[in-house]
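This part of the workshop introduces the protein records we will be handling. Getting from the letters to the C-alpha cells is the skill we practise here. An example says more than a description, so a record of this kind follows:
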Amino acid sequence: MTSARYYHTATLLSSGKVLVTGSHSSNSLSSCEVYDPPSNTWSPVASMSSARRHHTATLLSSGKVLVAGGHSSNSLSSCEVYDPPSNRWTPVASMSSARRDHTATLLSSGKLLVTGSSGPLSSCEVYDW
C-alpha cells in the first residue's frame, strides 16, 4: 500500500482489483487506493468525500461500492458510493443513525442490510440500491 492504514476496508471489485478505503493515522483518512493483483501494484484513486475509519464498504450488484458510516471525530451517518470505471464518489442518503463498527450485508434481493454499532443499537436499516 502507498499509505499505512488500520481500521480501513478492503473490497474485491468486479474487475478483480481491491479497493482500500479510509483508515486511521493521527486522524481519519479519506484517501483510497486500488491493488491490482496480477501486476502486484498499488494506485491511488479518488478520495472519499468524508474521512472515515470503522466503516463498511460493500460491493453492490451494479459493481459500485457503498461506503456507510464509520468514525471521524464522531460516529458518522453519511454514506457515499464509488463508481470504479469513472473513479468518482457520490454522496447518497445518510443512515437514520450514526454507526461505526457496524455490519453491512448484501441481500440476495440486492438490498443492503446495515445493523449494529460500537455501542448498543437495536435498529437496522435496509437500503435499496
